[in-house]
Fold:
Amino acid sequence: MLVAALIHSRGWAVAIVVYVAVLVAVRVVSYLTSKKHNVNLDVRVGVNEPHVVHLYFDAYRARIRIAVDGVPVEVTGVPVPKWGPTLQRQYKVHVGRTEKHTVTFVKTHKLPLATMRSQTIVADIDGTEVPVEATQ
Structure:
């Protein structure tokens, strides 16, 4: 309604400027809110053949980057079937040559406004949940 009034009285240029300003303000607030929900964590794997699996989750873009010993690894999130207002995605990374392990990260978040809410990430090695080290 406001946009229609601006278009009629002052021209279409003012309406576009107001519309763009509102979009920019919403994106800035969304970015600043989601930035505090980014996750950095390390999982140490192996005894004879030690590795460090690093996970970085960017809440604003909803992207996960996983690296093994500093080398990026391509992973895809597989949705975990579950009923309810939450969504889970599972990311698996295979680590080691002689001492093989499977590191699994499960990310859980609530669906409405997911990028603006905290998201839980649980790590396990070969089916056993492990403590993770949060890094900056």
The first strand starts at residue 39 and ends at 45. Residues 80 and 88 are 5 Å apart (CA to CA). The chain has a mean pLDDT of 80. Helices lie at 2-10, 12-35.
